[in-house]
Amino acid sequence: MTDQDKKKVVGVALCGFGRAGQIHFHGIRQNHHCSLKYIVDIIGEPGVLEKITAVLAEYHMTHVKPVSKEQFDEVQKLLVIICSVLHNHL
């Protein structure tokens, strides 16, 4: 990646790490113009943090921070991709 390309990188927060969130995760991971910074989910739910942490470790992305929806203010000024459950879609 050239210095010029690095200037075009957008920080991204991914909201939701279910089926759709994981599909978007892989798209973001492969896009050189995106830098995933946060994954926002219901961290207090059993197994959620473990699932996110395992996937991040698998792809050597330990710089990405899993945060709860209560910590969402932390991700301002980033591109946010919201992956809600299907019955929440309009």
In a few lines, what is going on in this structure?
With 90 residues, this protein is of the alpha/beta class. It has 3 helices and 4 strands; from the N terminus they run H-E-H-E-H-E-E.
Tell me what you see in this structure.
This protein has 90 residues and is of the alpha/beta class. The chain has one domain (3-88): Rossmann fold (3-Layer(aba) Sandwich), CATH 3.40.50. 30% of the residues lie in helices and 24% in strands. It has three helices and four strands. The chain has helices at 3-6, 19-30, 48-58; strands at 10-15, 34-41, 65-68, 79-82. The chain has a four-stranded parallel β-sheet, with helices on one face. Helix 3 (48-58) links the parallel strand 2 (34-41) and strand 3 (65-68). The radius of gyration is 13 Å and the shape is globular. It starts with a helix and ends in an 8-residue tail after the last strand. The mean pLDDT is 83.
